[in-house]
Specification:
The complex is a heterotrimer of chains A (265), B (452) and C (482). Chain A is α/β, with parallel strands linked by helices. Chain A has a domain of 175 residues: Rossmann fold (3-Layer(aba) Sandwich), CATH 3.40.50.300. In chain A, 38% of the residues lie in helices and 27% in strands. Chain A is built from eight helices and twelve strands. Chain C has one domain. In chain C, 24% of the residues lie in helices and 35% in strands. Chain C starts with a helix and ends in a 5-residue tail after the last helix. Classes of the chains: A alpha/beta (265), B alpha/beta (452), C alpha/beta (482). The interface between A and B is medium-sized, with 30 and 24 residues. Strand 19 of chain B pairs antiparallel with strand 22 of chain C, so a sheet runs across the interface.
Chain lengths: 265, 452, 482
């Protein structure tokens, strides 16, 4: 039976070098929903992105993650991508010598192969490149270069969104996509995301600040603190956080969660 | 046991029979240097691993075969050569085939290309341009440590002559295909001279192939003069089989405001050692030395490069990369030398290597020797693996691990290839490299044998 | 502007060597020259056991078959090994039991060098073995250390009192056949320090040896052996000075370090032998073999050196990383001014799994100085996961000096990652201008910049040495800019 959820994370625990970073995280995302995950530095935001995309930095010690009813944790990073999970990296890496065109063509055709489709013809591929470039307002000069090589911080982020446009994911994880962007770049990037989204595309926005959420308006906001979600609410929660900072949640979390101190190591 | 005394004895025998062999039919212009060069060779010997420049390169196996040597081409050898067809598509070049280091019909061979550039055999050049040859021959191939350079001066009888007179520009690359095709094992020595006079421009592409399965050893010396404000580019694509040894010494001498670049792409060959010497002899000159090798099985690939900054305000870069698999070994030996008073020098040297197997090995010696203070010199060297972060990035976009590795290796290699200015050739080499990385044989279709 | 800088350069490079005085003390010397008899005399003077003499003779016989190494980027004048005195000792009746027995002239000398030998005068916990010419004068804090089982004494005493330890470890890291100078040292070494830290002991104070050449025409050949047993820790310092003399003097020392499982040794040197005068007259020829072995798993050896002295420096403090997860470090600042020459660096030999090494070398050349970094990083086939990072920078102050970098990288394991980076440049005019604009004189600016440049290394030194080293840098360089 098809689950109503696109992504289901249940009681997820993960460690890096034997230090528990995610301490029982639960999150459910339906198709088309936008979730924002906010939290102070070190709360586990990036680890969550790593675990979902299969980066072997963190080790999952407990819990389950299902994506469209399939066990996500068993899949290789590339299979997760082909299933439709896209990560916009916080720090996109430069890959000298690998051209954007070759990179994108390979990625798209691998995805198509996974779905039993024929590779795109060269002209169709180029047409899509052109179209998506316009959509996210990325300069052609950039897509003619090697992957991220010599790009500015803002250009790298735009390039991530361009790739998202090309790959049309089911679930997009935006890891601190707003960091290092000036207000114009932020607007372009955020509008890009809105333009490429289809009604059933889900988005998880991982961010420190509220400002990106002015553009990508979430259905739900979750506060991640010390490895788990300590508060969930609507967009108003983000505003409250912006206003009062994380200390407020820190205090509240410490007080309101009775088990807090006892299960701490 | 030291193999060298026996080889030197054989070479000495050959030398002693010079009146009937080498000297006969060889122009006096070249003969006059031979005796002194042979004495110098005897003094220096065949370089062994005590020689810093050969610290990681053992020539024993390459010199170990009993090579048949001869000093003049046999007419019927050229049948195969003439049938040879370079398959690089869209490569608009002026093309010439050398067999075993000789020009077909060598003595007649001097042709003038449109625009006034001369190309042909060294023998013919000595007749037609005696004073020019005299001015440049054996002037730049100076080296006090490597016995193989004077050995070439003593024994080489032919090679390529290229001459771009003042302000001549030839926009097409000149392609030289060096074929080895014999029924015996041979030790061949060719000697080349390139003169690019003031304001002239020329690109040279040298492709090495061995089309019969015999053992080969080639010891090539190439002298290049790049005059004021002249421009020269040389690209070598080395694709000999693994029973062959190829040793090249290229001396590029540059005058002020000139530009030169050298790019050695080594795909196959049992032992390959490319030594490139760049001398920046006048102000405001620019030079680039590039190299890429992909090695597996028991290949040994060595690159030696020295950039001499002898004048102020010059720029140089060195970029050498290697990928080593199976039992391959590689060596890099590079030096930036900034002479006293070569102020405002900008020099950069980089050597990066990827080791893929437990039994492969890489040794590298990037060196700086600097006697002027207002300079910017830096170098970097790495030996390691593919970047894990880059690998993950590719996989996170749905590209499988094997393909991602391939892409990264290709990207690694392309960093060198991208510096080739001839687009069709750049694409062709990209393709050959990709084939090579995929484990397919990256030979040209005309190569008849499987490498082992 | 040019002229001002030249003037400054002149002022600075003529900076006086502060330690150039001669102590007027009666010295016992043996005649010049080297042969088996001389070696027997040295051994007899030190009342050595037979095995020690045998070791020396074996080394001497081997040395006679060797040639002076020529591979370094150095211009080494002919050295007449028969024209050197191989043993010179300040005359004392016998090894003093207490400070009262030490010749007051000697005490004064070390006081003047800033190394008071009275324990109460030492502010911080530093135990000193003071060596003048061929003998150890006094070792402080011996008793305090002995309570913890730490042996810290002169090498000659160790031979007598701890023969089994000496026999076990002597030449175990630097064999007597190792190289021309180490072999010579093995034959004629006179004194030096011996140190043993027992299992699990963290040495509570810095141990240090201060070497002083005083007598003329003599060579100094000391030998240091440092053993850190399992889980032990020690930080060791070494300083050296010599009087200003017109003739060159030879110094050929050997230092061996053994780190057993989990042990850590920090070895710091501030080398300030007399560098010769501004015309290159006189100065020490410093040919030193220093090597440590990380024998056990998880052990660590760290070399830090600030080399400002000597006419010629030839040394490569090295680490053999045999234990799994062992770590080697080399931090170096080398300054060559006037006609000084240095060819120095390190060797990191990765044998064990997951071995790590770090090399940071900062060369500074001024005047006619020639400064070379020479380093080897070797990863053997079994050194799974080995990792090295090297950073070797050179700074040129003037257009008559030279800076050279000769790294050797040999990798025989696919999981190893070795990275080497180097730059050569002069002090940026824009940096100096920036300082000038803020009211800092060019001379001070250079001092600031050079110290900043060397900071990474200086910071590795124990506190009081760091201050000393910083001053030394200033003295040997201030104002030199091209």
């Amino acid at each position: 039976m098809q689950s109503e959820f696109l992504l289901q994370i249940k009681d997820l625990k993960a460690s890096i070098d034997n230090k528990e970073i995610l301490r029982g995280l639960t999150l459910e995302v339906k198709p088309g929903e936008i979730h924002a995950i906010m939290g102070p530095n070190g709360s586990g935001k990036s680890t969550l992105a790593n675990v979902l995309t299969g980066r072997e930095i963190a080790t999952v010690t407990a819990g389950t993650v299902t994506f469209e009813g399939k066990n996500l944790l068993e899949m290789s990073p590339e299979d997760r991508a082909r299933e439709g999970i896209f990560l916009s990296f916080q720090y996109p890496i430069e890959i000298p010598g690998v051209s954007m065109v070759n990179f994108m063509k390979t990625a798209i055709n691998e995805q198509r192969k996974h779905r039993g489709l024929e590779p795109l013809s060269a002209s169709e591929f180029l047409r899509q490149m052109r179209e998506k470039k316009e959509l996210v307002e990325i300069d052609s000069a950039l897509t003619n270069r090697s992957v991220n090589e010599g790009f500015s911080g803002g250009e790298k982020k735009k390039n991530e969104i361009f790739q998202m446009a090309m790959l049309e994911p089911r679930l997009a994880l935006l890891d601190e996509t707003d960091s290092g962007l000036d207000i114009d770049a932020l607007r372009i990037v955020a509008n890009g995301v809105n333009k490429i989204r289809r009604p059933d595309t889900s988005v998880i926005v991982i961010t420190h600040y509220q400002r990106l959420l002015d553009y990508i308006v979430p259905d739900y906001v979750h506060v991640l603190y010390d490895g788990r979600i300590v508060r969930s609410g609507g967009p108003e929660l983000a505003l409250k956080l912006e206003e009062r900072g994380y200390d407020w949640i820190r205090k509240e979390a410490d007080v309101s969660e009775e088990t807090w101190t006892t299960d701490r190591k | 046991m030291d193999y060298r005394p026996e080889v030197i004895e054989r070479l000495t025998e050959l030398w002693e029979g010079r009146d009937k062999g080498i000297l006969k039919g060889s122009p006096e212009l070249y003969n006059r240097y031979r005796a002194e060069a042979f004495t110098e060779f005897l003094r220096l010997g065949i370089p062994d691993r005590k020689n810093e420049a050969y610290k990681y390169t053992n020539l024993e196996k390459s010199f170990g075969y009993r090579y048949e040597k001869y000093f003049s081409p046999r007419p019927d050898d050229f049948r195969e050569a003439e049938r040879f067809h370079c398959e690089v598509e869209d490569l608009d070049v002026w093309n010439m085939v050398l067999l075993n280091g000789f020009f077909p019909r060598g003595d007649e061979g001097l042709a003038m290309l449109p625009g006034g550039i001369w190309v042909g055999s060294m023998r013919a050049a000595a007749k037609q341009f005696p004073s020019l040859v005299e001015k440049h021959y054996n002037r730049y191939a100076q080296n006090e440590k490597d016995g193989l350079v004077p050995l070439n001066t003593a024994l080489a009888t032919d090679g390529l002559f290229l001459y771009a007179p003042k302000n001549t520009v030839y926009t097409k690359p000149i392609q030289i295909v060096n074929l080895l095709h014999t029924t015996q094992d041979i030790f061949s020595q060719d000697r080349n001279l390139v003169v690019v006079e003031e304001g002239a421009q020329m690109s040279l592409l040298v492709c090495d192939h061995a089309i019969s399965p015999q053992h080969y050893l080639t010891n090539t010396v190439t002298e290049v003069y790049v005059g004021r404000n002249a421009r020269f580019e040389i690209i070598r694509v080395q694709n000999q089989h693994n029973d062959s040894g190829k040793i090249t010494h290229t001396f590029i001498h540059q005058e002020r405001d000139s530009y030169a670049s050298s790019n050695n792409i080594t795909l196959h060959g049992g032992l390959v050692r490319n030594a490139t010497w760049h001398r920046l002899n006048g102000e405001n000159a620019e030079t680039h030395s590039y190299g890429l090798f992909l090695a597996d099985k028991h290949q040994h690939i060595a690159n030696f490069v020295k950039v001499d900054h002898a004048a102020p305000n010059c720029n140089s870069t060195q970029l050498f990369k290697g990928v080593l698999d199976e039992n391959a070994t590689g060596a890099f030996n590079g030096r930036i030398m900034v002479h006293k008073d070569a102020q405002k020098t900008n020099a950069y040297q980089s050597n990066n290597n990827i080791i893929l197997s437990d039994t492969a090995r890489m040794d590298t010696k990037p060196q700086l020797e600097i006697y002027a203070d207002d300079v910017k010199c830096s170098h970097g060297a790495t030996v390691g693996q593919l970047d894990e972060n880059a690998l993950f990035y590719l996989r996170s976009r749905g590209i499988d691990a094997r393909e991602a590795k391939l892409m990264l290796m290709f990207g690694f290699a392309h960093d060198v290839i991208k510096n080739i200015s001839i687009e069709a050739l750049r694409e062709r080499i990209d393709h050959l490299v990709l084939q090579r990385l995929r484990g397919e044989l990256s030979r040209c279709a005309s190569c008849a044998i499987q490498c082992n | 502007m040019e002229n001002d800088q030249d003037k400054l350069l002149g002022e600075v490079t003529s900076g006086e060597y502060k330690y150039g005085f001669v102590t007027d003390i009666e010295t016992e010397v043996i005649p010049k020259g080297l042969n088996e008899d001389v070696i027997r005399v040295i051994s007899a003077k030190k009342e050595e056991p037979e095995w020690m003499l045998e070791f020396r003779l074996k080394a001497f016989r081997h040395w006679q078959t060797m040639k002076l190494p020529k591979w370094a980027h150095l211009n080494i004048p002919e050295i007449d090994f028969q024209d050197i005195i191989y043993y010179a000792a300040p005359k004392q009746k016998k090894r003093p039991d207490s400070l009262d027995d030490v010749d007051p002239e000697l005490l004064k000398t070390f006081d003047k060098l800033g190394i008071p030998l009275e324990e109460q005068k030492r502010l911080t916990g530093v135990a000193v073995d003071a060596v003048m010419d061929s003998v150890s004068v006094k070792t402080t804090f011996r008793e305090t250390l002995a309570e913890m089982g730490i042996i810290f004494c002169s090498f000659s005493e160790a031979v007598k009192e701890h023969p089994s330890l000496v026999q076990k470890y002597l030449a175990s890291v630097v064999p007597y056949t190792d190289n021309f100078f180490a072999t010579l040292n093995s034959a004629v070494f006179s004194d030096g320090s011996f140190c043993y830290i027992p299992k699990g002991v963290r040495c509570p104070m810095e141990l240090s040896t201060y070497f002083r050449i005083n007598a003329s025409n003599t060579g100094q050949f000391e030998r240091t052996l440092l053993i850190a047993d399992e889980e032990a820790y020690v930080s060791y310092l070494e300083g050296c000075t010599a009087p200003m003399r017109d003739e060159h003097q030879l110094h050929a020392a050997v230092v061996e370090i053994v780190a057993e499982r989990g042990a850590e040794v920090k070895y710091s040197t501030v080398q300030n032998w007399y560098p010769g005068d501004k015309d290159g007259k006189g100065g020490i020829f410093n040919f030193v073999t220093k090597r440590g072995i990380c024998k056990g798993d998880d052990s660590k050896i760290s070399w830090t050196q600030v080399e400002t002295g000597s006419a010629i420096t030839w040394k490569y403090p090295s680490c053999i990383l045999r234990g799994n997860n062992s770590t080697g470090e080399f931090y170096s600042v080398a300054v060559t001014n006037n006609y000084q020459q240095a060819d120095t660096g390190t060797k990191m030999i990765h044998i064990g799994r997951n071995t790590r090494s770090t090399i940071v070398s900062k060369g500074i050349s001024a005047g006619f100085g020639q400064n070379s970094y020479r380093g080897l990083v070797k990863v053997l086939g079994k050194a799974e996961g080995a990792r090295n990072f090297s950073q070797c920078d050179s700074l040129l102050l003037g257009d008559k000096c030279g800076a050279h970098t000769f790294p050797y990288i040999e990798v025989d394991n696919p999981s190893a990652i070795v990275e080497h980076e180097a730059t050569t440049s002069r002090i940026g005019e824009d940096q100096i201008f920036y300082c000038n604009q803020r009211g800092i004189s060019t001379e001070d600016a250079i001092g600031l910049i050079v110290n900043g440049y060397a900071r990474e290394v200086i910071n590795k030194l124990p506190m009081e040495f760091a201050v000393e080293a910083q001053k030394l840098l200033q003295i040997s360089l201030e104002g030199s800019v091209g």
